[in-house]
Design a protein that fits this description.
The complex is a heterodimer of chains A (328) and B (272). In chain A, 69% of the residues lie in helices and 0% in strands. With 328 residues, chain A is mainly alpha-helical. Chain A has one domain: ABC transporter involved in vitamin B12 uptake, BtuC, CATH 1.10.3470. In chain A, helix 7 runs antiparallel to helix 10. Chain A is globular, with a radius of gyration of 21 Å. Chain A starts with a helix and ends in a 14-residue tail after the last helix. Chain B has one domain: Rossmann fold (3-Layer(aba) Sandwich). With 272 residues, chain B is α/β, with parallel strands linked by helices. The chains are: A mainly alpha (328), B alpha/beta (272). At the A-B interface, helix 8 and helix 9 of A face helix 2, helix 3 and helix 5 of B. The complex binds adenosine-5'-diphosphate (ADP) and magnesium ion (MG). The site of adenosine-5'-diphosphate has 11 residues of chain B, from strand 4 and helix 1. Chain A: This is Branched-chain amino acid transport system permease protein.
Chain lengths: 328, 272
């Protein structure tokens, strides 16, 4: 019995760590949804694109090499240099900001005052475009991402738990780093949104467009800002997931994990995204641990959705979402 | 530009300066509807300028033209002796033109204090990166603005609700917070769209007093929309009367009151 409990604790802890990753992706969704009412279907692909760009820059890959070679008949591939991780990350942030500006200028600007469903469909288009664009720019092969984050079993946790429970927990260093980074990111975003001029402007835009305009806020600037931040969050998520399981198309599917997190936490709440991610991460590991064996396992694929659906019935606005009251 | 140098002193001793804004031959159409039809008038520094008229006369549309929310189909807006180019509402706000809305537009999720603080966004200097780099300086700036906002809060007697989320306030107080937010911008022109609509008598009296005090204390140029003639007569220095998108009267209240067209419009010859 005690042994059971020890294993369960380990599963729960690992679940929490995985949950942090889910939160990270959900956070990107919340930021954009809150400030512009757009459900950004492309958030997952943005994470993939960010990771691809980071790897490409790090390895000195020539962008669009395949295309250039096809046209010129050359054999370009690499500049032959390696870019240090920190510099590559900074450059990638620059690319994500550039992308935010392009999205605003080419897409959002032309869809002002359109219904949310139109904007949603525009982001579906954006997702497919970005996926293809990423392929053309950096190639479709699976890449490994290494920015020097520690990986493998954390020995301190193992020996400590070993001493306490007589069984050493397996916690991946990368998961611990992801958790720390996520907490820092959320703290930074909170400080930014609560205490800075732009943060206040951002909350204002999220609340009422007319009023925001009347106090001199440029909606277009705010949208570029929000998409840049979402791009940055996508990069962070891309780095964590990419370091864990390589950079390939499936990385964009992490977005699917964020959906139940959002249903649980509410689409408009940053704390909701965090808590939702943790509940789902831990819930699915524990469910797999206790119930999984009874029903043949592989519950992790669907558990999150079932949990979210149950939530949806009882609290449609999510745990922290604002109450939905129809204006009459 | 005409009248630039002039000015006069009102009977109650307030100084009215030269023309600050001039609207020239403004026409505004929505498809077939003509909301404003070839209207010209000016606004002098320090005065309370009322726009009155029956419902649907085009008053709000005029305010929206001034604040950049509507782009006039024809006509020019002159501000401080210069013709204003095509501008977006946020750019107009940055010129120092603050407004309230007929249907209240506040940030419901934010506290009263935060709402009023947004009014000062146009006056805040430091940009995104300088804020991140020199956190201390940004914090000092924030404190400075906070102080100014507290003064406005005291002035409008809303100290006890400063931390309340605006969405929870009753209608009358919301109107007051909206006024506070507009004042926080230290506007060159303050535009108020029916600030007294939907209020009870006591709230109306308070609002009247605030508008007068603000004008008196800070010399704020105020453009005020009302459809109730009585209130306006006591408040304003000069009145523009609109009806069906046309200007049917313009002048001091007592003069406008005796204008036959105005009397007809208000007796509701053709209005419901
Ligand atoms: N955004 C708009 N689109 C179409 N018609 C409008 C719009 N705004 C105002 N109008 C029309 O312009 C006319 C004047 O409206 P408004 O300026 O709101 O009058 P008032 O404020 O004097 O009651 C009305 O016929 C109204 O329907
Ligand atoms: Mg109106």
């Amino acid at each position: 019995m005690l042994e059971q409990l020890t294993y369960a604790s380990e599963a729960a802890l690992n679940g929490l760590m995985a949950g942090v990753m889910y939160s990270l992706v959900a956070l990107g969704f919340v930021l954009i949804y809150k400030s512009s009412g757009v459900f950004n279907y492309a958030q997952g692909v943005m994470a993939l694109f960010a990771a691809l760009t980071l790897v490409g820059i790090q390895n000195g890959q020539v962008p669009f090499a395949h295309l250039i070679n096809a046209v010129t008949g050359g054999h370009l591939e690499s500049f032959g240099w390696q870019v240090p991780a920190v510099l590559a990350i900074l450059l990638t942030i620059g690319v994500m900001v550039g992308m935010a500006i392009a999205i605003e200028k080419l897409v959002l600007k032309h869809l002002v005052n359109q219904a949310p469903i139109i904007l949603f469909m525009a982001t579906i288009g954006l997702a497919y475009f970005l996926e293809g664009f990423g392929d053309v720019m950096w190639g479709a092969d699976i890449k490994t991402l290494d920015v020097g984050l520690p990986q493998g079993i954390n020995e301190t946790v193992e020996s400590l738990t070993g001493a306490w429970f007589g069984y050493g927990f397996f916690i991946d260093n990368l998961d611990i780093v992801a958790a720390v980074v996520s907490v820092a990111l959320v703290a930074a975003l909170t400080v930014f949104s609560q205490y800075s001029k732009q943060g206040r402007a951002l909350r204002a835009v999220a609340d009422d467009h007319q009023a925001a305009l009347s106090v001199g806020i440029s909606l277009r600037f705010i949208w570029i800002l929000v998409w840049s931040i979402a791009g940055f969050v996508a990069l962070v998520a891309g780095i964590m997931w990419g370091s864990k399981s390589g950079v390939q198309f499936s990385l964009s599917l992490i977005a699917l994990k964020a959906l139940p997190v959002l249903m649980l936490g509410g689409f408009t709440s940053i704390p909701g995204a965090i808590v939702g991610g943790l509940i789902i991460g831990m819930g699915e590991k524990l469910f797999e641990f206790f119930i999984g064996p009874m029903i043949g396992g592989a519950t992790e694929n669907w558990f999150a959705y079932v949990l979210a659906l149950i939530f949806l019935v009882f609290r449609p606005q999510g745990l922290f979402g604002e109450r939905i009251i129809e204006r009459v | 530009m005409k009248d630039m140098g002039e000015g006069y002193t009102t009977p109650d001793g307030r100084r009215i300066g030269p023309v600050l804004m001039e609207l020239r031959n403004i026409t505004l159409r929505f498809g077939g509807v003509v909301a404003i039809k070839d209207i010209s008038f000016d606004i002098r520094e320090g005065e309370i300028r009322a726009i009155i008229g029956p419902n649907g006369a085009g008053k709000s549309s005029m305010l929206n033209v001034i604040s950049g929310f509507y782009v006039p189909t024809e006509g020019e807006v002159w501000f401080r002796g210069e013709k204003r180019g095509p501008m977006r509402p946020y750019q107009v706000a940055r010129l120092g033109i603050a407004r309230t809305f007929q249907n209240i537009a506040l940030f419901d999720g934010m506290s009263v204090l935060d709402n009023i603080m947004t009014g000062r966004l146009t006056l805040m200097q430091s940009g995104l990166f300088s804020q991140a780099l020199w956190w201390g300086k940004a914090a000092a700036e924030e404190d400075e603005h906070r102080e100014k906002v507290e003064k406005i809060i005291d002035f409008l007697e809303i100290q006890n609700i400063r931390k309340t989320p605006v969405g929870r306030l009753p209608y009358g107080l919301k109107k007051r917070v909206e006024l506070a937010r507009a004042l926080a911008a230290e506007p060159k022109i303050l535009l108020l769209d029916e600030p007294m609509a939907g209020m009870n008598v006591e709230e109306k009296e308070d609002m009247c007093r605030f508008i007068l005090d603000v004008n008196d204390e800070f010399g704020t140029t105020t453009v005020l929309i009302e459809h109730d003639m009585g209130v306006v007569m006591d408040l304003s220095d000069r009145v523009v009367v609109m009806d069906y998108g046309r200007k049917i009267g313009d002048g001091p209240p007592e003069e406008v009151r005796n204008n036959q067209d105005v009397i007809d419009a208000y007796l509701g010859v053709a209005h419901a």
